[in-house]
Amino acid sequence: MSQRIIVLDTETTGIDHRQHRIIEIAGVEIINRQLTGKHFHSYLNPKREIDPGAQAVHGITLEFLKDKPLEEDIIDDFINFIMESDLVIHNAPFDVGFLNDILIRQHKETLTYHCRRIIDTLTISRSLYPGKRNSLDALAERYQIDNSIRSKKHGALIDAELLAQVYLIMTRGQENFDLHSPITNNSKGEISKNRQSILIRTSPEDQLKHQDYLKNMKKENNICIWMDLADKN
């Protein structure tokens, strides 16, 4: 049976999920520990202001989001993309709180109903490296992964791709890591052979920025998995 993992990240209007909203969501697909090049990505119009502190981190403005879809427009595609997969998230309680709020507002079951289990890489890294910094930046530096673009701004797709690399290195030879969260739903854990992943197209501007990031990664490390996958396809 194929092991399908979705590495998730979000950007938000603030830190409290009870008051704030997701403005960007991205998921990167891994099957049998191989990156497939498929992803889910969407910006969202939050219909509320963005806290200055949050905007300073991700650089996303309300003006940019005004013509983006609402959460109800993308929720079914998102569920289809993550269905029956393991979800890998860094500091999972933060993102899960926001995602569950969207699901509840849209009259859907919460996240654990749709996925097999949720894996928190922050929990894993704290076990592997107690007493050390275990932010995504710190882990990328520890594993010698280029994360230079994050010094300019954060982005959900950029961070999900970076976390995917971190996770694969972190769990190499430890596919059954006992810190992984247990399955907490009634899913059979099998992937439908007939179901296809949902691919949401990003804007031309975002695609150019993303390509620049990938080119810098390849220049720094002489390898970039996503560019190699694109060349093969």
TrEMBL record:
State the GO CC annotations.
cytosol
- Give the binding site residues for a divalent metal cation: 9, 11, 159
Enumerate the residues binding substrate.
9, 11, 58, 159
Per UniProt, residues of the Exonuclease domain are 4-176
Q: How is the cofactor bound?
A: Binds 2 divalent metal cations. Magnesium or manganese.
Say if the entry is tagged with keyword Nuclease.
yes
What cofactors are annotated for this protein? Answer: Mn(2+); Mg(2+)
* Enzyme Commission code(s) on record: 2.7.7.7
* SUPFAM superfamilies membership: Ribonuclease H-like
Give one Pfam hit by family name.
RNase_T
Query: A biological process (GO) annotation for this entry?
Result: DNA replication proofreading
Please write the reaction equations for the catalytic activity of this protein. DNA(n) + a 2'-deoxyribonucleoside 5'-triphosphate = DNA(n+1) + diphosphate
What keywords are assigned to this protein? DNA replication, DNA-directed DNA polymerase, Exonuclease, Hydrolase, Magnesium, Manganese, Metal-binding, Nuclease, Nucleotidyltransferase, Transferase
Specify the enzyme's EC class, one word: transferase
Q: Which residues form the active site?
A: 154
**Which Gene Ontology molecular-function terms are recorded?**
3'-5' exonuclease activity; DNA binding; DNA-directed DNA polymerase activity; metal ion binding
Q: Transmembrane: is it a keyword of this entry?
A: no
Instruction: Please give the NCBIfam families that the UniProt record associates with this protein.
Output: dnaq, dnaQ_proteo, PRK05711.1
Quaternary structure (record): DNA polymerase III contains a core (composed of alpha, epsilon and theta chains) that associates with a tau subunit. This core dimerizes to form the POLIII' complex. PolIII' associates with the gamma complex (composed of gamma, delta, delta', psi and chi chains) and with the beta chain to form the complete DNA polymerase III complex.
Functionally, this protein is described as follows: DNA polymerase III is a complex, multichain enzyme responsible for most of the replicative synthesis in bacteria. The epsilon subunit contain the editing function and is a proofreading 3'-5' exonuclease.
Q: What is this protein called in UniProt?
A: DNA polymerase III subunit epsilon
